[in-house]
Amino acid sequence: MLAETLLPNGWVHYLLGGLLIGGGTVIIYLTTGITAGASTFLESTLSYVSGQSRFQQYRFRASRDWRVVFTLGIVLGGAVYGLAFGEFGWTTDVQWWRLLVGGVLVGVGTRLGKGCTSGHGVCGVGSLSETSLLNVATFVGIAIGTAQIVAALGVSP
Amino acid sequence: MSREQRGSRNDAERHPLFLPAILVGGVVFGFGLGLSQMYRPEVVLRFLQLTDLGLLLVMGGASVVAGVAFAVMSKTGGSAPLTGTQFGKRVKSMDRNVLLGGGIFGVGWGLSGICPGAAYASLGVGNVTILYAVAGMFVGAYVQGYVRSNVGATEGATEEPA
């Protein structure tokens, strides 16, 4: 009963999907020792086209090619899922300005805060890193507040 | 030298299976973002509006799997076969940017329901509308990088070493 209230759309796919996200992280970790996050790709890729000193740091230049491969892998994995489960071609109804403005803030915040839902949320929490736990508590708490306000203002979808 | 950096040597020194391993990991990661429905901003927003808490299972499941691997391998003291990098955990230094950045990310995530990895997977599913978010992320990453490159040189001092 409680489960139907908290998880009205079931739970198996959430858990299996989460285990696979962790599994992908573990494949990279066991073979390379890298604890990979998804948002560094934004800055390491900008190093190809921008001479700004922030992007030209060695850590971005040295990792930019494999981060492109990691991201292409994620795109490919999404495509395989979409084709296998008949969801390929689905598009969101969330309004474009929410995606664009939200995206800008995600770009600023994840890079300033040293990670995102995968770097801090999966790898950092998995490492029981105090820095990551504080970061995740902050972004989840603020995101819940923001989403509640946006919904209360009647913005939908 | 950070772990990520040590894992990324010059092409000549790299193991031929380095990039294939990254690709396979990425595909599994992206498939998981598909199966968990995190590629749909609507589903993430349902969590943030507290009407479907499935995201907790996703992040919980993923971090437990990763955490067990990190803990076990770190204890062995061994090294990764393709890079020679010693197994360790993901530890980043704490400063005010971690909280400020987390807060800004939170506003963006709450407004859009999208985060970087999920956006890449969503694009793979064919959700071309998500390009608004991907473009926004690059703009945001560029703006913070531009500001930090040109304003207040001391900002860089709080960064991770390389």
From TrEMBL, chain A:
Pfam families: Sulf_transp. It is a multi-pass membrane protein. It is found in: Cell inner membrane. InterPro entries: Sulf_transp_TsuA/YedE (IPR007272). The keyword Cell membrane applies. GO terms for cellular component: plasma membrane. Coiled coil: none annotated. Its main location: membrane. PANTHER family: INNER MEMBRANE PROTEIN YEDE, SULPHUR TRANSPORT DOMAIN-CONTAINING PROTEIN. This is YeeE/YedE family protein. It comes from Haloarcula rubra. The lineage of its organism: Archaea, Methanobacteriati, Methanobacteriota, Stenosarchaea group, Halobacteria.
TrEMBL record, chain B:
Keywords: Membrane, Transmembrane, Transmembrane helix. The chain crosses the membrane at residues 16-35, 55-73, 98-119, 125-143. This is YeeE/YedE family protein.
